[in-house]
Amino acid sequence: MNTRLKDTSGHSPIDPRILDEAAAWLMQLHASTVTDMERNAWEQWRLRSPQHRQAWERAEQLMNKMGGLPPALSMAALTHPGGNNRRAAIKKLALLMTALPASWAAWRVTPWEAWMAEYRTMVSEQREIELADGSQVRLNTATSIDVRFNAVQRLIVLHTGEILIQTAADNAVTPRPFQVLTAEGRLYALGTRFTVRQGEERSHVAVFDGAVAIHPKSGDSGVAQVLHAGNKTVFTAEAIEVSRPADDTDIAWTQGMLLADKMHLTDFTDELSRYRQGIVRCDPVLADLRISGAFPIRDTDRTLAMLQATYPVRIVYRTPYWVTLVPR
């Protein structure tokens, strides 16, 4: 069923897929590498239907709103991987187009926290840092964190993306707890090695050594749970899901790989898109195709070529930033 987003701005509703496309074009046309061929492709897209033209008018309205910000930062808000990844940024832009100007203030909060974070990585970039206490933190793609160490705490604030933490013993006179704060709650490391990923309204945790105590933001004391080595879970602001075994797929990104074990193609493309600028989409016909193997995340074109060579799919590049997997 073709569902349309409800529009509270008084305009007629627009197909959400077209809004996604308008948001992606907005980001692409303001990239420094845009070509004349891409501009021509955008113009053809804009003239495809009245809804396409209307969606682009909304995009221009959004740009006018952003015109009140310093120009360099306005473009950074579009091109930097704010949000959980570039797809999340596109979704936020698309939602803003349905409700200008009421939602404008909501857009400005989270991306700026990520952009102004003390440590951050771009899409497809990884980075490793050593903290003042000797703890090691590895940042995955499109990740942003703040580090807040003082006399009473060791705290990492995860704004976007994913981190691997290896905690060190605290040499302070009074030992300070090591904590990670996400949008959904707070984690207390109990001498451990673990990953934390900020998702959309949920946080993912996998523990490989030691244990981690999870405290959802809105849960009562009875909701807190200790997650031991070899397990992973997902939690929201209110609840913690039943834990499951953690395995190599949860940490393969540290080796530059994406491991798939009978993964649905639609889930695979969602994961791959975290490491690639632009949009990777899967034709609904292929959504349930099962994918297995080890795929490089530092060369996503190679990964796409591997898919095409191994499975009954064809890779269609509408632009370098817009890829669709269709049946072969």
Automatic annotation (TrEMBL):
Domain FecR N-terminal: 20-62
FecR protein domain span: 118-212
Stored Pfam families: DUF4880, FecR
GO MF entry, a single one: sigma factor antagonist activity
Keywords: Membrane, Transmembrane
Gene3D superfamilies on file: 2.60.120.1440
Keyword Transmembrane applies: yes
Record-given protein name: Putative transmembrane sensor
Taxonomic lineage of the native organism: Bacteria, Pseudomonadati, Pseudomonadota, Betaproteobacteria, Nitrosomonadales
